[in-house]
Design goal:
Length: 334
């Protein structure tokens, strides 16, 4: 059995699997090398040959327990016909929404636009470098995708004032997202994803109507994925009450962010937990890294726990610090 599935099924595992969010990315010189020649990020995500090489880069370097496919949560808005551009030193920028187009968009047309992602998964499933490892597919949660689609740019400085002005547009998109995210989950599972992670990176941006924008739509995806026979990890980054989220949404595992009080959470959340370490710790020194990593490993030693970060690994991270991190996690004995 693969390491994360074993952790999900066995209460007595002492070994903690490890992988890192954004493990296939800019902190790797070999990724930056490829990226230099491939300036169009969407095109890169739709090139299954190069995406396979990138997915395997962190596996070859660090022998992580799981591979996450090289792709992006914004491939769904792209598949729904919205223009998506990634600007250097700025982040994503999306075009206008053509609601009529999306309403009339059929499953086959959407899936055929994203078909290189499914090919990527099929190839990886048969790649012997991933023998015994989990292969993680992923989607953005409806709320986070709504945020990008309507806000058009990363809401680092908050949502635009007129975000909810057209309530009927917002409601319509939420419904359409439920449909197309499910198609993307199903196709990834059919192509070989052994786990699905749902990224709700902007869950912390909303404090009212959580039922409508977070709990209900995420639960719908969780139930759907479980019915396909695949475990589902939720990452509602920045949500104020993880415990309430878990009791309502019931994911197979929850990824916590670095602001979570772990001594408290370990007592209140019974389901398997992943992640938590502040990615900035990897920018400090070895002594501090060891101290902070051991805090997580000690706290979760009797819990079903997968080591990961509390958000994506930062581009400034040094390779040696990642090597050290893997060493610390692999040599830990409770
Ligand atoms: O290694 C992996 O985790 C797999 C690939 C992956 C990427 N994006 C590749 C990527 C995954 C799982 C994502 C998820 C993603 N994408 C999220 C959710 C997780 C999170 O970080 O909150 C979000 C919000 C996005 C949207 C997105 N994509 C943004 C905001 C940006 C630009 C800013 C940034 O942090 O880089 C991207 C670009 C992106 N996606 C890169 C990579 C490797 C960098 C591309 C580059 O410029 O080289």
């Amino acid at each position: 059995m693969t390491p994360i599935k074993e952790c999900l099924e066995n209460n007595n595992t002492t070994k903690k699997p490890i992988w890192l969010m954004r493990q296939a990315g800019r902190y790797l010189p070999e990724f930056r090398e490829i990226r230099k020649e491939n300036t169009d990020f969407i095109k890169l995500c739709l090139n299954e040959k190069i995406s396979e090489v990138i997915t395997l880069q962190p596996i070859e370097r660090f022998n992580f327990d799981a591979a996450i496919i090289f792709s992006d949560i914004l491939m769904i808005p792209y598949g729904m016909g919205q223009e998506v551009k990634f600007k250097k030193n700025f982040g994503p920028e999306l075009g206008e929404i053509d609601l009529k187009y999306i309403i009339n968009l059929g499953e086959d047309e959407f899936a055929s636009k994203l078909s290189p992602i499914y090919k990527l998964l099929r190839n990886l499933k048969n790649n012997e470098k991933l023998n015994g490892k989990d292969l993680i597919g992923f989607v953005g949660a409806p709320w986070t995708l709504l945020v990008y689609m309507v806000n058009k740019v990363s809401p680092k400085n908050g949502l635009s004032n007129n975000f909810f002005n057209d309530q009927s547009l917002v409601d319509h998109i939420m419904l359409l997202l439920d449909k197309f995210i499910k198609i993307h989950i199903k196709n990834q599972v059919n192509a070989g994803a052994s786990i699905i992670q749902i990224f709700d990176s902007w869950a912390g941006l909303i404090n009212t109507d959580l039922e409508k924008y977070i709990y209900k739509p995420t639960k719908s995806l969780v139930e759907y994925t479980k019915k396909l026979g695949v475990p589902v990890i939720c990452f509602p980054r920045g949500i104020s009450d993880y415990s309430k989220f878990c009791s309502i949404v019931e994911p197979s595992m929850v990824n916590i962010d670095f602001n979570v009080d772990i001594k408290n959470i370990v007592k209140h959340i019974k389901i398997p937990i992943q992640g938590g370490l502040d990615p900035k710790i990897l920018l400090s020194n070895r002594e501090n890294l060891k101290k902070q990593v051991l805090k997580y490993l000690d706290t979760f030693k009797d819990h079903q726990y997968v080591f990961n970060l509390g958000h994506g690994i930062l581009p400034e991270t040094k390779i040696e610090m990642v090597e050290e991190l893997v060493k610390i996690v692999r040599s830990f004995r409770a």
